[in-house]
Amino acid sequence: MLAMPAITADPPLNTTAKTAADTAANLGRNVQTLREARGHTQQQIARVAGVPRATWANLESGQANPTLAVLIKVAHALQVRLEELIEPPRRLGRLYRAASLPSRTRGAVTVRKLLPESIAGLEIERMELPPRASMAGVPHTAGTREYLTCERGKIELSTGGTSFALDPGDVVVFRGDQRHGYRNLGVTTAVAYSVIAFAPVAE
After folding, report:
1. Average pLDDT estimate for 84-108
2. pLDDT 10s digits, 125-134
3. Dihedral through CA 87, CA 93, CA 98, CA 103, nearest 10?
4. pLDDT value, residue 1
5. Contact assessment for residue 189 and residue 128, using Cβ atoms and an 8 Å cutoff
6. Of 88, 94, 96, 115, which residue is the least packed, with the fewest Cβ within 10 Å?
7. How far, in Å, are 13, 23, 86, 200 from residue 17 at the CA level?
8. Structure confidence at residue 95 as a pLDDT band (50, 70, 90)
């Protein structure tokens, strides 16, 4: 007796329709959000994309069913991937508590990552120095530049045989590929922010 082939049922029509409606709604919200983030009117961005303004307005209505050719033009005008046009809108923000950010101690100094996500070529840290505390910096690859900003207290930066005394708001730009050090000159806790711009690595 011959075995009967398995029969796969098509998804219910109402499920398919809901998926299509959700995709169109996602498209509408994403296109509008991306356009507004770039400071363009519908007329301006439609001209960049090479589509009629009415077509763009229809996309933002959340009920459009555009062709692939139109989606490609829209993605190119907004400078995003096609997937970003139809995926569910991202959360507007996410809170990271200070305790969740990576930190380390070097002697009495506490160094904490300022951002929860990495940025290519950059490292941004917050340094908290107790009264009279000091910390030696680590020389980086040739061509690296560092920016030190004093937020609170009085901090001395020593680099290349020169010392700089920073008050709140002051910034020092220096070569990060040489020996350097930080010191709290005051009797209260000092806070500084360090931005390290790494030199491009030759391939």
Report:
1. 83
2. 999 999 999 9
3. 40
4. 47
5. yes
6. 94
7. 6, 10, 15, 50
8. confident
Topology of the domain comprising 98-197: Jelly Rolls (2.60.120)
Under a CB-based contact definition with an 8 Å cutoff, are residues 197 and 169 in contact? no
Q: How far apart are CA 169 and CA 151, in angstroms?
A: 6
pLDDT in tens, 139-155: 999 999 999 999 999 99
For the domain 14-86, what is the CATH code? Answer: 1.10.260.40
Residue pointed to by tokens 């046009």: 85
What are φ and ψ of residue 151, in 5° steps? -100, -40
Q: Alpha-carbon distance 125 to 119, whole Å?
A: 12
Domain ranges for the chain, please list them: 14-86, 98-197
182/186 Cα distance (integer angstroms): 12
Which tokens hold the place of 116?
Answer: 């929860």
- Output the six-digit token pair for 192: 């500084």
Report CA-CA distances (Å) from 11 to 2, 4, 5, 15, 18: 28, 21, 19, 7, 11
CA 152-103-189 angle, to 5 degrees, is 25
